[in-house]
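Record type: ASSEMBLY
Status: queued
Input:
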Amino acid sequence: MGFADILATLCLHSVHGVMRLKASTTYAFTWLCSCLLYVVKHRGTKIESITCDVKTLRKIPLHTTFIVEEKLEYYEDLARVVTWIFALGGHVVSVYDSKGDLKKDLVGLRTAIVLQQGKLFGTAGPAVQVTTLQDAESLNALDKTGELFLVLVLSPEDGRQHIVETAVSVCKAVLQKRVKIEDINIDFIDKKLTATLSEPSLAIVFGGLHSLLGYPPWHLRVTEIHFLPEIRKLVYQDLYTVFQKYANCQQRLGT
Amino acid sequence: MDDNSSNWFRSVCCRILQTGVVPKHVAIIMDGNRRFAKKMHYGKAFQGHVLGFEKLKETLQWCLDLGVTEVTVYAFSIENFKRSKEEVDGLMELTKKKIAYLLEESDVIAKHQVRVRALGDLRRLPDDVMQFIAKGVNYTKHNTRAYLNVCYAYTSRHEMTEAIKEMAMGAQDGLLYPSDISEDLIEQCLYTGDSPPPDLVVRTSGEVRLSDFLLWQSTYSHLCFQDVLWPEFSVWHFFSAVLSYQQSYASIQQARQEDRERRDKHQYESDLRSVLEQRQGDVPDASLLEQMVKEHAERRRERQRTFVERIRTSHAQFLEQLCPAN
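Status: finished
Output:
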């Protein structure tokens, strides 16, 4: 390695260092502002102030999805963010855990959510069901009445592998002459893939990594994608800012 | 800073970036042409598209100078057919002009031996545009040093649906078993079947969605949404995107590795299931079973290779027959 290469490498490492420092400083500044707002307005802990925030939003995503890369040892932080989403008017939250561990303890997650709801809503919190895609079909009827709030826990098995399983079932159906080749179009595939998981309007990727980490690709066609710090560092103001951006976005859908 | 100093400084920055990881495949959603034309008070929004094409040429040069060997761009979505007839016709005429330029004058394409590929449902296009595209693609098909994939009349959902349809036809024709279908096979059946997944996806104009672009392929890419209109995209925006890619490279590589292990595990379990189904419950000893699974996997790979070859040959023949005799 020549002197020029060494100098260039040092320059690059310095630039990366400055970028990381800038990100940390920005985060610290944002956190400080949120703390000040918390002191002034008790944001995130009072349902009344969240209800006021809802009135400022032109539109609210019915289905918000979280893409989580960090290993969640305690569910309190995730449960708090889910509860904020429900308080802001969301109805479905899907949590894509890129490690696949969350599916092993749905009961624990539900307990944490109910606890957070109790703190925010008091005793009148909405009924919440925490489930996986495989068990969600039986809940669809309940979901349509609007009385049930749904938390769907996803893992990499629900990503591209789900499309593979759909392709296999379509091929078998063609071989058994239950389906014709000319019947296979986007709507046909869409009905199969969105039977239990609807398209999220908003995706929030937590943890600083700007990647979808294997999230079900079919469902992110026109989803607004935002990036936030790790869930354990999240404050209410971060989430409300994302909801404001979502409310103000315009989708031209190709036109 | 005058042009020479600017070029020198850019070269130095490029050299510095090259000491880190350089993305091999960059995908770009070139958004913001019409808003730029409105911002600059041009009479017609179409002028934005003309400038957008010039920006594409520049960006391709920056990518090649840095060492990026594959660039995929979202030029025209199936959804864009909903735009006014005037705009759609104008875009088709611009496409023909630019392909003619490509064939006659482009030094970037010739110097870097760039192979141009068109990805999308080309049959939706007018015949004359299809012929121009086919000429451009065939003209560069022997280049192998770098690739420019232009997504035209494209949406990702359409691409995935066509792949599933192809596999269903393959099964019907006896080329494939349903159990042969896997993530790897679907990837090879997509329009980008010859390409590695994009390392970096950039979208300009401040919008933060993928808009039906490379949804399957970009699931482990580094996403970079930049608040600049496409015609204003500068080399510094490009370098900034590459810097942010370098910062997340290690974590994304680890996630990709875990995904690869999961896929291999699925594939092995699928092959094992197929062998056991064929044996109808008669389970041989472990070493014989292992041997049978290996042989099954080899036969599966052979079927998949033949099937994928059929798709690629059919696509190449479609483009060749579109080219006029001269």
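Annotation: Strands of chain B lie at 25-29, 70-77, 114-119, 146-154, 200-203, 222-225.
Annotation: Residues 235-279 of chain B form the longest helix (45 residues).
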